[in-house]
Target: SDR family oxidoreductase
Amino acid sequence: MDLSGKNAVIYGGGGGIGSAVAQAFAREGARVFLAGRTPGPLEAVAERIRQAGGTADTALLDATNARAVNEHADDVVAAAGSLDISMNVIQHGDVQGTPMAEMSVADYLRPVATAVETIFLTSQAAARHMMRQRSGVILVFGGSGDPVPGLFLGGLQTAFEAMESMRRQLSSELGSYGIRVLTLRSGGVPETLPENMEGAGEIADAMVRSTMLGRAATLDDVGNVAAFAASDRAASMTAATLNISAGALIDR
Model:
């Protein structure tokens, strides 16, 4: 298996993206450590992994708490022997659908602050162990393209840009230790839209229409590409983005 013997931490492991990535990692042989603030979804994902023959552990964790993040990383290494993969896919508390001209500064800045703080803390905690190991993979999710007229992402657009800047910096600083840092860019995954979200159907249709392939990325796509990126099959890849947007986002 591509990830046999690897230990992966997924922050936000109870959510749609986190669940898909965790199950893909476990299917490929990794021991998965799911971290998040809500026990029910974490345990549900862990149980699905166990029923499929995989290994999963859960921990209640606030990714904005530096001490908790570092202690959890230490616990993972103590229990499993290494920390090989780290991915942060927590929710950012963003407000979408409101133009900047009508949005409060607090709503705009919340996802930016959350993304920057938690990417910093989780990547730093992983890097401490990966630098000693002289190996590891840090995955970032959510890079976006240019703003789309009529699609009001609020501060999430700025958060994505900040995350990409951090990924570039981490790649540069950690590469000499054998640590790879990559971003997955999806252009939006319709399956992650809340069913009760106003206009969810129209947004999902817009995601599909924006693609070149006539289909948007699925949760399975995200999980499969994340597993590849974390594996030794992608050993020469770092400081780069994996564009899984079906052509919605154009790399230049």
User: Anything to note?
Assistant: The chain has seven helices and seven strands. Strands lie at 7-11, 31-36, 55-60, 85-88, 136-141, 179-185, 240-243. The chain has a mean pLDDT of 92.
